[in-house]
Amino acid sequence: MDRVAVLLYILLVIMGWLNIYAAVYDEEHQSILDTTQKYGKQLIWIGGASIIAFCILLIDANFYTAFAYFFYGFILLLNILVIFLGREVKGSHSWFRFGDVGIQPAEFMKFATNLALAKYLSNVNIVVNQQFRLKIRDIFKNYKNTLYALAFIGIPLVIIKKFQDETGLALVFAAFVIVMYREGLSVNFLIFGMMTAMLFVLSLIVSTSSLLIFLGVMALLSFLFIRRNRLNILIVSGIYLLGATVVLGTNYMYNKLDDHQRVRIDVLLGRGNVDMQKEGYNVKQAKIAIGSGGLLGKGYLQGTQTKYDFVPEQDTDFIFCTVGEEWGFVGSLIVILLQLTLVLRIIFLAERQRSDFSRIYGYGVASILFFHLMVNIGMTIGLMPVIGIPLPFFSYGGSSLWSFTILLFIFIKLDANRLLILR
After folding, report:
1. Is the dihedral of CA 166, 395, 26, 36 positive or negative?
2. In what order do the strands lie in the sheet with 92-98?
């Protein structure tokens, strides 16, 4: 068992628990073990996570390979059932309630999708190598394989976004594209995705006519520096038409978004007359809290922005504000470095796997953790839209903690048995 990954996990969970205590601290409930408060409840979730991690390590590693599709189908079914049987919480119909306890099946869909994707890609890789003796990076030359892999990702994404209205959790599934790229997906897909995102953003802050003129000028310049044959002309023309389609379709897509989603984009880009006391209040207070911490912070339990509840959702989505205010720049840097160290450690372990399944699953773990880290911290400092996803091992909530624990410890088990796994 890799001790470095386990120690990093334990350290991050303890730091997260202490920050939850600081985020909701009040003088009437000072005991950190008070189970009527969120930090006391989080301790119970941590205890449950410890039991789950222990059980995962006891189970044979080949079990996760054999039952990968079963986990995917079962948890996908739960995500469908929650639409009809679940309760609405803050506008999202994605929670099962059992008394005071809430479980969000969308959180567990991440590890299930990772298992299924790893199972499919590893099986395709075996068939390709045995029948055609091709390299691993050739598996995505067959577009059928690409479509099947995208279907594993896209089905839960659509269900979670469309029917549960959990945009943040749905977008996390985009992180699996990194896994596909590692396994041979053409870099052109990534370039196309990034260029589309850039054009989408530019279309919201620059006039449509200006962008179309710019794209036209770039197309004409391309004709001057390339060999003008039929193929190259078709390629340049196709790129221009795709770009123009994105630009023209941006306003249509933007208007189709929900009101609160449009407001979040407006706040991020500074579009329109955004009222910082209403629509932009969360991000404004988050920046104030983090900035007020200075170099070394105000000290543990001394954060005024935190103590007087100026920052909404400060124990969940905006937990990093407590880190910035009380621990300062140095403490924030330490937290980020610990999170990144865990991600890099997982990538290192993934690369030493002898099993395709274990390597692919490991990259899925690293991609999900990195996406959560990047988006959560980015939205608290105004670099990302506020989409409401937790900071791994820090944010309050049993579903997120348990899902991250399962996600990570399955890989730790796979790594510990890397010489015994059949595929």
Report:
1. positive
2. 87-89, 92-98, 101-103
Q: How far apart are the first and last CA of the chain?
A: 19
In a domain, 217, yes or no: no
| Predicted TM-score (pTM) above 0.70 | yes
Q: How many domains does the chain have?
A: 1
Matching residue, tokens 């996990």: 9
Query: Which of 308, 276, 278 minimizes the C-alpha distance to 292?
Result: 308
| Spatial distance between the Cα atoms of 248 and 239, rounded to a whole number of angstroms | 14
pLDDT of 194-240, one tens digit each? 888 888 888 888 888 888 888 888 888 887 777 777 777 888 888 88
Host domain of residue 261: 3-185+257-416
Tens digit of each residue's pLDDT (9 = 90 or more) over 311-346 = 888 888 999 999 999 999 999 999 999 999 999 999
Within-domain flag for 133? yes
Report the C-alpha gap between 328 and 233 in whole angstroms.
55
Centroid of chain to Cα 34? 31
- For residues 413 and 410, give the distance between their C-alpha atoms in angstroms, rounded to a whole number: 5
Nearest-angstrom CA–CA distance, 36 and 379: 30
56: Cα within 13 Å, side-chain hemisphere: 23
